Structure formats: C-alpha cells, structure tokens
Amino acid sequence: MPTRALTKALAARLEELLRAGRLKGSEAVICGFIAAGDNRGPRYLLEGEGEAPFLRMNSNNYLGMALRSEVIAVEEAAAASYGVGPGAVRFISGTWSSHVALERRLAAFHARPAAMLFSSAYAAIMGIIPPLVTDKTAVISDELNHNCIINAVALARPAEKHIYKHLDMGELERRLETAAKSCARAIMVTDGVFSMRGDHAPLDRIMALARGYDSAFAEGAIVVVDDSHGVGAFGPSGRGSEEFTGSPQADLLVATLGKAFGVNGGYVVAEEIVIRYLRETSPFYIYSNPITPAEAAAARLDAAAQKVHQLQLAPAGDLTKLNLALRQTENALITTAGLPNRPWYRHTIYAPGVLTGYAAVVIPGVNEAIDARDHNLAAQQLTVLTQAIDRAAAVLSAAP
Ligand SMILES: Cc1ncc(COP(=O)(O)O)c(C=O)c1O
C-alpha cells in the first residue's frame, strides 16, 4: 500500500525531530480552572494530574480578559441572540452587526479610518501580504519575524525578498537602497513586540526610513506591522509598539484579538481604500468564515484599554528585561536543573503589568542559584517568583 511508505517516511521524520530535541510531543490538556480569589490568581487543572492546581505562566491572556465574568456574559448573550457560528463567509451573508461594530471600534481604538476582521492574526497576515505584492514588489523583513510573516512572504512570491538582521536598521536601509534600483514598490514588514524575544521593533525609525525612501519607489514604500503581542499590553494606553516608540502610524497594523483582548480572531487597520481593496482581494477574508458574532461582541477593546490604564503599567521597557530574564530562567531550569522541556513553560511573554519589579529581582537570583547547582535555593527563589506572579495575577483578576 502506498500509504505504508508514506507513514514510514513520516515516522522517520518524527524520529528526527525527537532526536534534534524539536518534537513538541503530547500537549498538556487543561480540563478545568479555579477562578481567582483570596488574593491569588486563577489555577488550572490538567488532565492526568488529578486535583493538583497549576499556575499558568505562559499564557498570552495578558490582561486576564479571557476569564472575566463580564466578558463571558457579553459573549453568552451574543451567542443567545445570534447563534454560535457566522453561518457563511462575510460577503455571502456572514456579516453580523457585531462584526461591523467591532471593526468600527478597532478603527477608533487605533485612530485609523477603517478596520477589517480575520479569523486570526495569522490569517490576517497571510491574507493581506500576497494581495499587496506585485511582480515589481520588494518585501523587506526582519529575520525574527513571526512564522505567519515568513509564510505570507513565501506565498506572495515578491520580485525581491530581503531579510535583514534582527533590528538592524543599517541593513534595512541598505536593503531599501538595493530594492529601489529595480522594484516599484517596497513593503517593510516587522513584528511589533517580537514573539520569539519579547523585544520590540524601533517603529519610529522604520517609519522614518519608509518615508525617506517613499519617493525612491514608483508605488511607494510602506510599513506593515504585526503587533499581536504589543497591542493591549504595551505602551502607556495599550496601543502597542507604535505608542511605545512614539512612531507615526504604520501603513497597515495587524494584531490579534486572542492575546491581551482575551477572545479570538485577528484584524488589520489602515486607510479606507486599502481596506476596501483587501475586502475584494484577500482570499483568507473572502473564502473563510469570520470569527463568530459572539466573539466579535466579546472583544471589548474599551474594557481592555481601560484596564491597561488602571493597572498603571510599570515602565514598558521592563517587558523586555523581564521577558529575557524569564526566558533565561526557563532555559536554565530545563538544561541545568533537569526539568523536562515541555511547551508548558515555554514561550513566555508577560505584559509589564503582570510581572512586577519584585519578580525581576528574584529571577536573576534563580539563575545564579541554578548556576551554583544550589537546587534548594533555586526552589526557594522559584517559590518567591511564583508568589510574585500569583500576586500580579490576582491584581489583574481584581482590576475592573
Ligand atoms: C507576531 C504574531 N502574529 C500572529 C500570531 C498569531 O496570532 P493568532 O493566534 O491570532 O493567529 C502570533 C502568535 O503568537 C504572533 O506572535
């Protein structure tokens, strides 16, 4: 049977991934959660772990919106009114009033003329880059951009693809100069807050380069930012990397509704004509269902933004510092203290409000203890860290 040969090849590939330490393996199944209370954050129950309560340290639900009773109530009420699925793609008959209302709110939140929803931020990036690329377009992309950008650029097949070193503005400019010799359009694309590092793009400088080189391209030089980790969690009012860097508005800004906003889905904001063009040409929008009308109702940006204010975020630069420290700790725990390398503790980015300065002091302590092979001290430090995170989670849960 031909499939036998295929399954053998697939099994060999899985074995290779395992040997290279890249197999993700079985996923932890969350089968329940205990709501925050008594001055502590929520706890999670895992399949196979009985009643042992787990602290979830790697969620992107930065502001705790996913568990808030008022958000759940809005989603429930909308599901009761509209049903649980959109029933069709948008242009056939899948556009509901909550989709339109959310698009208006997103546009207003980012002070843009128009917004457009996608089923996820991944779909948004895949859906907007190919229609913007012609056979005379250069795409210029940071080497650590998210996987959705890498795949969108592959799908778009631009005339020229330039990858610059992470955050290297000198190389970005040189790539622009090269592209200007033969291309009519340049698209610079970057994560806002980088999902792999937790650092952020110098958007102000990228925008300055785009404006400086705009006239070198017959159809201009534009900037596309995917600020899925930044929006809602970064910048004094949660407007993300643009706000944090004091940058002019990017030409197209993409973000997710599935992290700080706690729900699900993705979107792009831009000028009216760009959004009109994308609604007519983006396959991920035209041929794929939108988020449900109830999800659209639950993505309460105003509530999330209000929460950012209320939490009075720590200086936003702390995000990078804390995140890097936390990653070092994770790596040290895995490689030195022998904890299993499970995705459960991987991929951790905390909003500035989640980890306090207190935790930042403790984390290096954990590293040092691990380096000194002092596992008791490491365990103590880790307990303090856990308590700090828990306190922060409790504050998040309590804030309106
Ligand atoms: C930069 C970036 N874009 C897109 C996504 C995917 O978002 P979504 O789950 O809405 O597709 C992520 C998720 O980690 C991300 O970091």
Q: Given the helix and strand composition, which structural class is it? A: alpha/beta
Mean pLDDT: 84
Indicate the CATH class of the largest domain. Answer: Alpha Beta
Segments where pLDDT lies below 50 for 5+ residues? 312-320, 342-358
- Total strands: the figure is 9
Which small compounds were modeled alongside the protein? pyridoxal-5'-phosphate
| SSE string, helices as H and strands as E | HEEHHHEHEHEHEHEHEEHHHHHHH
Explain what the structure shows.
α9 links the parallel β7 and β8. The protein has two domains: 116 residues, no CATH class; 237 residues, 3-Layer(aba) Sandwich (Aspartate Aminotransferase, domain 2). It has 16 helices and nine strands. Helices cover 48% and strands 12% of the residues. The strands form two sheets. A seven-stranded mixed sheet has the order 3-9-8-7-6-4-5, sandwiched between helices. Strands 1-2 form a two-stranded antiparallel ribbon. The protein has 400 residues and is α/β, with parallel strands linked by helices. The chain binds pyridoxal-5'-phosphate. Pyridoxal-5'-phosphate binds next to α5.
